[in-house]
């Protein structure tokens, strides 16, 4: 991959795909489906909490509300990010 000939969007897509692939591997190692809070999901995805909130508000990533807590299934978030990257959706 030559960075000089790569557009910013192509680079962003490649980085996203790389992060998603790394997350997929980590999630598949876990045999139990888990729910994590916003801070942990942002950490797992290597994104900021505000970015995660924007993605959720834009209905790019799924979440569940349990009482007052917003929780995420990491495997579902990874699948949603992959679908967004594959579809060439605008970056949020």
UniProtKB/TrEMBL annotation:
Protein name in the entry: Helix-turn-helix domain-containing protein
């Amino acid at each position: 991959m030559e960075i000089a000939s790569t557009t910013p969007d192509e680079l962003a897509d490649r980085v996203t795909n790389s992060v998603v692939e790394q997350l997929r591997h980590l999630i598949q190692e876990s045999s139990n489906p888990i729910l994590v809070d916003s801070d942990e999901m942002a950490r797992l995805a290597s994104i900021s909490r505000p970015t995660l909130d924007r993605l959720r508000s834009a209905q790019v990533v799924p979440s569940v509300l349990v009482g007052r807590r917003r929780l995420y299934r990491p495997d579902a978030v990874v699948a949603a990010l992959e679908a967004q990257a594959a579809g060439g959706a605008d970056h949020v």
